[in-house]
Amino acid sequence: xxxxxxxxxxxxxxIAILQQEKxxxxxxxxxxxxxxxxxxxxxxxxxxxxxxxLESLRMTLLEQTETIKELTSQLSNARAQESLNRGKRxxxxxxxRNLLNNRRTDTRAGEKDDFDGNPPSTPGAxxxxxxxxxxxxxxRKKKKCAGRKPAKEH
Length: 154
Hints:
Distance between the termini: 163 Å
Structural class: mainly alpha
Number of strands: 0
Strand content: under 5%
Largest sheet: none
Low-confidence stretches: none
Helix content: over 70%
Radius of gyration: 55 Å
Number of helices: 5
Shape: rod-shaped
């Protein structure tokens, strides 16, 4: 087979077209590599920025957590103090407490009233000897007055 000039020309054109396509593909590939490299560098810079932002947010969160713990502690202390103050504010005074707790009967006044000049031989012998008044009305009055301070006579 003999090659013809037209065949050779066809092959040359085809080779030229393929070389142009190869050159354009190589240029496109190089452009994509550059673009990918730039994107990668940009991504690294963004990731570094995000890491710094994340670290600053973490530190802020820790500080706020500590602040919340301190404020919670102060609030619980304030509530405890308030309940203590409320107890003190509405509690009876010491004088009132002493008066309420003083339920001991004033036996000395009764002993003075029952004294006939002879000292009793044993404690409580005055009441056992029958020196109590026979009138039940006066007995009730003594029972009602037991524990109270005797009235001052003028």
